[in-house]
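To close the section, here is one more complete example, presented without commentary so you can practise reading it yourself. The ligand is 5-amino-5-deoxy-1-O-phosphono-D-mannitol.
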Amino acid sequence: MCGIVGYVGQKQALEVVVSGLRRLEYRGYDSAGVAVISEGELEVRKKAGKLANLESLIGQDPLPSSTTGIGHTRWATHGGPTDSNAHPHVSENGRIAVIHNGIIENFAELRDELTAAGVHLSSETDTEVVAHLLARELPLAEFDLTVAMMRTCALLEGAFTLLCLDPHQPDVVVGARRNSPLVVGVGDGENFLASDVAAFVEYTSEALELGQDQIVTLTPDGVSVIDFDGNPVIPLAFTIDWDASAAEKDGYELFMLKEIAEQPRAVADTLRGRIGKDFRIQLDEANLDDAVIKKISKVMVIACGTAAHAGMVAKYAIEHWTRLPVDVELASEFRYRDPIVGPDTLVIAISQSGETMDTLMALRYAKEQGAHTLAICNTVGSTIPRESDAVLYTRAGPEVAVASTKAFLTQIVAAYLVGLYLAQVRGALFEDEVRSILRDLDDMPSKIDLVLDTVEPVRALARQLVDARSVLFLGRHVGFPVALEGALKLKELAYMHAEGFPAGELKHGPIALIEDGIPVVVIVPSPRGRAVLHDKIVSNIQEVRARGARIIAIAEEGDESITPYADDIIRIPEVPTLLQPLVATVPLQVFACEMATAKGHDVDQPRNLAKSVTVE
Ligand code: M6R
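Output:
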């Protein structure tokens, strides 16, 4: 949801900023722009469309040499994706350039105030008011850009990360943060600001976390941070534990393909060091309080999109292992009703980015109600883990493709570890049960590898079905959230109607959608597990098949009983029922990716979407 980069140092700012934007483009790709300072003047280039459009504009109209710059890649909220709405926005007097991520909620009021004072606004954005306000506040702040930013932030409501430049202070970038992400990269004689460490990890691994309501001033030799009241703040330092190559395509055509292929490694990394030799779960790093775990009487998972599907999968396992009730709530709905959440509740916020605004706001609400909070997150130092009592990081590595893949699998694994830990502390499981689950979990990377080795027929099937109008996905038990995830992948990548249903629910209405030839993907539970689930799904398959559906079964190796009922069978390895999502999701990811490719879509950056959704 908008990517932001700032640089001050010795290098050519344009190169650093554009390479940072390239790594942040997953956050939004409606337009892009840069501003640099050269000979006491601001130079701005901005263009609607993807970053490539901006690069070609700069090719035709080059920017002068400069060692200070800011850049932005936009996901439009206020005003369409046009050249004039692209950031940076510059004040009328040419004194301030500003870029922004978030929403200024009182922008209409501020715009009216500025207009009444004779300021002419030239875009439809909420951001432009900030440029004019900063220019107005600068003389009142005795031309100290940091103070001008502090005065301006006091006028703003909503969520924002802002970066600004003043050409009269050529070695300074000032940033501010409220409810939107911003991190500092610390270099030698150079410093960086960005929405995400990916933007600067090729230059430095040393970073600083910024908290809420803080202002940061960057020069080549220093980083100083104050809060919105002007009090000095010492930011928390951290080291980025992956290098720039982890965020490269590494020979793959698409980030999504690379990330699908990385899943065995991501799952293995998420398990690493967390299962002791004695088969006890070791989550000391998470800072979970055993006394709290013993006292809680329920668990609530809050999350959005794919992360919510991971939570739905985890519900089955955590309830089964702990006998605690688990509710899974879409974070965007959670605080707008009257949820029953309090000191007896463990709230688990699941988020790849750690910045999803809906999840963050739900987390804050849960904390206000006295709940204990745990984040399951992939992004070290992001806001959701920072604001949670405990955090268990998934170790998927950077996920760049907008469609979540490896994050999903690792979120399930992390949530399972939490479930087993709760059971361990509460004494809810027998040792031999835990031992057998952990052995199976440990085998998952090699099982996922097996799936990856056999996905070619899935690709062929996707190409065959490229003209389908609609695809339905059916599952039961943990297969239901997998069905939802398969449908979400297809919607976001192939832009086609796709829906996931609990297989037993179809006959209560959605079966009316079945028409001759409609592809129905069925996640078939293992016949070796709870046989009743398998039997019931076979009945559900017959119901839709009788009405003309084309059945694509995702079924376990060796399950021959499904053969008479399926038109196509995608085989997955034998695994226990609760672990089936870790293998059954992979062909669905491949299916959606191939379908989108066959339709000629931009798989890594699908239309209208952004990877990290930092507005509500
Ligand atoms: O960063 P988060 O995990 O909090 O993101 C939540 C959703 O926005 C995300 O999973 C989204 O649904 C994905 N694009 C789905 O592929």
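Once you have examined the tokens, check your reading against these statements. The radius of gyration is 25 Å. The mean pLDDT is 94.
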